[in-house]
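Standup, Tuesday
Yesterday: got the pipeline producing structure tokens again.
Today: sanity-check two examples.
Blockers: none.

Example 1:
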Amino acid sequence: MARLLVVGCCGDKQQLNELFFKYTLEGVLHFASLIQVVESVIDPAKYYMNNMMNTLALLQAMKDDNVDPLFFSSMAADPFTHTCERHSAETHLIPLAIGK
């Protein structure tokens, strides 16, 4: 069984459609999520676009071209709480947790 590694943006629907047309795939491995907790608080839009919107584009392209299954590697960070270094007793809800 041959293996194919494609490095690209999972939100690039044109690239996905070309890929799914050219190859017969047995599934998709998704490792494209951003996971840096502090950065997600500073720039939540970046995380929303990459982790939500681009993944939705991938799922739609997979559906359109009947590609399955999807093996999704979820983020490695704990999305629900983060203790600030300056205020160790203060716990914050991380923006990524809202979508969980």
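Example 2:
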Amino acid sequence: MKTYILYAFTGLIVNNVLSTFWIYVLGISKYITPLLNVPITMPINFVIQKMGVQKIIRKHDTL
């Protein structure tokens, strides 16, 4: 469930905020913005996912 929430956060919220910034503030084409969003959102997903896995591992080791 956490994975779905994570991808919903980065997929819906972060992508929309970044796209709005690229299009309206910097004037970049709406067809280019997804290419700019991917290198930003992928590391966010990776780091948050790794933090979640580490938390699960630590919880399992203490049991």
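Quick observation on example 2: The radius of gyration is 15 Å. Residues 1-33 form one domain.
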